[in-house]
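Let's see one such:

===
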Amino acid sequence: MHGPASAAWLLVALCLASGAYCLLRMRTRGPSGQGAAGEALMGFGMAVMAVPAAFVTLPAQVWFAGAAAFTAASLHAALTARHSPHHLHHLVGSAAMVYMSLVMAVAPASHHGPHAGPGGLPVLTGLLLVYFAGYTLLSGVRLIPAPATATGSPGPDSGPPGWGERAELALVCRLTMAIAMVSMLLAM
């Protein structure tokens, strides 16, 4: 990724925090834990991609290995997509990571090649930008709290949910990674 180093390091920190939280979510058995492994892989992969090029330049083999890992994640998401619509988002995210890994593996100037639209923006990059910007907006709207409703008192066994079981934290994690994806696609 190219851009200001301070913004890149902030992106690295956010992606690492999201990946670490997703690892915590993997321990839960509820709906929040579903897909957490793929999201953890996504967070850590995005953190590696966001490291400023001035700090370290990784060899092409690392990016090809990343593309292979995310291809496997894409296949898993494709096979499980019929069980949950959220797995379709995992499929798009994993495919985007494959695309960005391959772009980073080849010469920097080659991603403005024959697939570029007007102004030099590759068509696939533009489509991914539209998708993740829309997902970001939708996730942000979902975080708006609903009006409180009167419910009965909690039962004796119900306590506050653990860190890995909080649906709003999982949504914040996904929102953070979608924003990071938009910023990384813009930097390509």
